[in-house]
Design a protein that fits this description.
211 residues; mainly alpha; 75% helix
């Protein structure tokens, strides 16, 4: 179908809007999980785990060691297994690691979980770009990518109040507020990851339908 055809253009716009919004949500969840430590630290985590400023800083930064080490292997796996399957794997596994923060008991466990969070998140950004590229013709990608990138500042605008809301459940299920926040954002990542699993129907036409 030619992109000059009005029907094809309408189809591309529809897919672009849906994919742009959905991948934007993915990026929102990704950035929220990554910066959750900045919300948890001053909201009781530093006190409960007895963290010094240096320990908190190292815990925040050790994430990037795991991320850098696994970035290339993750990208190779992405090309082997496909963007959709690999993105689902990335989101579900980082969600599980984030959930484990709910029960962290000491600084050593915090270091390891932050490291493994970086390991599990490696490859997400290029995977999301590839996922968009497979669905949207080149001439229409700029608009879709714009909605993807805007999710980062929205993480602060929306994510901070969301984190604060989750921490309002302090003691509700026998957990400190910062622990309920980790539980909530981790579950959100798992849910979104399962939503993009190849075993689920996306409701979108196949890429060949818009070629």
């Amino acid at each position: 179908m030619s992109l000059d055809n009005a029907a094809a253009r309408a189809t591309v716009r529809k897919i672009s809007a849906r994919l742009g919004a959905f991948v934007g949500v993915m990026f929102f969840v990704n950035f929220l999980d990554r910066v959750s430590i900045s919300f948890a630290g001053p909201s009781g985590m530093n006190h409960d785990l007895g963290l010094t400023a240096a320990q908190f800083g190292f815990a925040a930064g050790v994430f990037f060691i795991g991320y850098i080490l696994l970035e290339i292997p993750s990208n190779l796996a992405l090309h082997r297994f496909g963007a959709r399957l690999w993105l689902a794997r990335i989101m579900v596994t980082w969600g599980i690691v984030t959930i484990l923060f709910t029960w962290v008991q000491n600084v050593t466990q915090l270091y390891w979980l932050r490291f493994f969070l970086g390991v599990t998140e490696a490859g997400f950004f290029p995977g999301a770009i590839l996922f968009l590229s497979l669905w949207v013709p080149q001439r229409f990608r700029s608009g879709v990518l714009a909605s993807f990138y805007v999710a980062q500042p929205l993480t602060i605008v929306i994510g901070a109040p969301l984190a604060a809301l989750l921490m309002q459940f302090h003691g509700a299920i026998g957990l400190a507020g910062w622990r309920t926040m980790y539980l909530g954002v981790g579950l959100l990542a798992v849910i979104v990851g399962c939503r993009i699993s190849p075993r689920r129907r996306s409701g979108l036409p196949r890429p060949s339908a818009i070629g």
